[in-house]
Amino acid sequence: MQRNLTTTKVSTMAVQIATVEAEQDHDLSADFSFNANDPWAVTMTLDTIAGPVDWTFARDLLIEGQFAPTGDGDVHVWPCLSPSGEAVVIVELDSPSGETLLQFPTRAIQDFVRGSVEAVPVGDEAVDVDSWLEQLLRAS
Length: 140
Hints:
- The chain is an alpha+beta fold.
- It has one domain: Sporulation-specific cell division protein SsgB (Transcriptional Co-activator pc4, Chain A, Roll), CATH 2.30.31.20.
- Helices cover 23% and strands 48% of the residues.
- The chain contains three helices and eight strands.
- It has an eight-stranded antiparallel beta sheet with strand order 4-3-2-1-8-7-6-5.
- Strand 5 (70-71) and strand 6 (75-81) form a beta hairpin.
- The longest helix is centred in the last third of the chain and has 14 residues, at 106-119.
- 18% of the residues are buried.
- Mean pLDDT is 84; it is low at 1-6.
């Protein structure tokens, strides 16, 4: 199945970042993007003082993490309540330089996930192997 090569969904949302080691909160923004040509993945771009930082991880983590803890490895996602009692989704990023917890409004995550599922429903993900190989060979 050939899919349009453009990003099908981009959402910008406020994020509260709490670095576990420093226990300091920082408010930033994040862009979540979904490309129908890579339907299993989402990319989160954080706007930091040092410049944009991209994390690409499984779309299923956002889908499942709205309702129950999920994740293995460098990215974990789970539902939670903020100190003020608002529904939030926590995304934990683990890297060699430490852990960071990101707190997103649940509604913003739901809207982004809904858009990605409308573009490529869960279970309809497919890879056009010929196009993928062509892109891979062009990149080398």
